[in-house]
């Protein structure tokens, strides 16, 4: 099992906790991840991470494939490889975004997410191999041409020395996209975090995709990177509310596939999901938050004293089938946290 951290991307002011970067780099954490929404971008901070650390790997979880072309994404990660040197792990973590962000923010038309991801990954892999990048897909044609007309220009190949071993991973909350990742990617970044026992949900989905690979793969050999929110507190009853707020919003404002309703249901809380959705969409937001059970939060988050967190970490989370990204202050209502939990977590993991 590998362990990483994530740079906060959900506040209105973007900054990087350099002290934390240097700490986890020295402690032996495996990865630092960044993300993007409609605030900061996810790639710029990785250059800072590489400069501020000595050995830790870097990746995105996630950047949006609707925000930049596939060759541009490949160029960015190849440039990062040259900056980072040959020994650090680099993970190109991708996501599909959604129709609203694609059209209202990026000003681009929404195309089918399944096929767009397949086209995007195929192009990035060609670029990483240093090949001539020519692709004719369902959502993407390189070189560009109008339907029924030949391209005006010849396809091109990268000028920079390339690295075919940069890993491409992507996520999604639907069975279709997770099976898609298992078929064509180097790992999975599922929506909604992780929790003990979730492998029983993901295993049959991943097995469908892994069976379609040119060389079939076992689930145990297919990397999964998910996040777990960790809150050190001496008052669980007081602080559990911020996670209920998050769950209610994710369930009520994102009711479709891949949203909070589907996540709650997959974890055995279908009745709760229905009730929270009903209340939230009726404008009864506080009641929706209160409808999220304490036991659900306690089961799928790590909160409490350092001793309580480490005990539950050892008993339920370590080696449960997933690489984990520890987040101590990266959810919408979180306040900046200190760094005291990072050493005990990796000490418990590494023994």
TrEMBL record:
<dbReference type="InterPro" id="IPR011251">
    <property type="entry name" value="Luciferase-like_dom"/>
</dbReference>
<feature type="domain" description="Luciferase-like">
    <location>
        <begin position="13"/>
        <end position="315"/>
    </location>
</feature>
<dbReference type="InterPro" id="IPR036661">
    <property type="entry name" value="Luciferase-like_sf"/>
</dbReference>
<keyword id="KW-0503">Monooxygenase</keyword>
<dbReference type="GO" id="GO:0004497">
    <property type="term" value="F:monooxygenase activity"/>
</dbReference>
<dbReference type="InterPro" id="IPR050564">
    <property type="entry name" value="F420-G6PD/mer"/>
</dbReference>
<keyword id="KW-0560">Oxidoreductase</keyword>
<dbReference type="Pfam" id="PF00296">
    <property type="entry name" value="Bac_luciferase"/>
</dbReference>
<dbReference type="GO" id="GO:0016705">
    <property type="term" value="F:oxidoreductase activity, acting on paired donors, with incorporation or reduction of molecular oxygen"/>
</dbReference>
<protein>
    <submittedName>
        <fullName>Alkanesulfonate monooxygenase SsuD/methylene tetrahydromethanopterin reductase-like flavin-dependent oxidoreductase (Luciferase family)</fullName>
    </submittedName>
</protein>
């Amino acid at each position: 099992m590998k362990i990483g951290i994530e740079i906060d991307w959900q506040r209105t002011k973007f900054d990087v906790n350099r002290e934390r970067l240097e700490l986890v780099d020295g402690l032996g954490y495996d990865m630092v991840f960044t993300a993007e929404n409609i605030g900061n971008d996810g790639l710029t901070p990785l250059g800072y991470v590489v400069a501020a650390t000595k050995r830790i790997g870097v990746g995105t979880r996630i950047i949006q494939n609707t925000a930049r072309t596939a060759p541009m994404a490949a160029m960015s990660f190849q440039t990062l490889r040259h900056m980072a040197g040959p020994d650090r792990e680099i993970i190109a973590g991708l996501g599909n975004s959604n129709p609203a962000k694609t059209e209202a923010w990026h000003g681009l038309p929404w195309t089918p997410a399944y096929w767009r991801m397949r086209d995007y990954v195929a192009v990035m892999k060609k670029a990483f191999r240093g090949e001539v990048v020519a692709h004719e897909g369902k959502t993407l044609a390189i070189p560009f041409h109008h339907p029924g007309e030949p391209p005006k220009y010849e396809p091109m190949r990268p000028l920079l020395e390339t690295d075919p071993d940069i890993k491409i991973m992507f996520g999604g909350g639907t069975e279709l996209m997770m099976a898609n990742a298992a078929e064509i990617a180097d790992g999975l970044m599922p929506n909604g975090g992780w929790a003990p026992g979730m492998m029983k949900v993901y295993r049959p989905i991943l097995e469908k995709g892994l069976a379609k690979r040119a060389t079939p793969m076992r689930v145990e050999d297919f990397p999964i990177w998910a996040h777990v929110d960790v809150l050190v507190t001496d008052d669980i009853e007081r602080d559990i509310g911020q996670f209920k707020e998050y769950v209610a919003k994710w369930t009520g404002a994102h009711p479709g596939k891949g949203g909070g309703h589907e996540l709650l249901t997959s974890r055995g809380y279908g009745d709760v999901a229905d009730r929270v959705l009903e209340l939230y969409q009726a404008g009864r937001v506080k009641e929706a938050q209160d409808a999220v059970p304490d036991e659900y939060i306690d089961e799928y988050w790590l909160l409490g004293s350092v001793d309580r967190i480490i005990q539950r970490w050892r008993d339920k989370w370590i080696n449960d089938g997933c690489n984990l990204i520890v987040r101590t202050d990266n959810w919408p209502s979180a306040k900046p946290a200190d760094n005291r939990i990072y050493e005990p977590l990796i000490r418990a993991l590494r023994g």
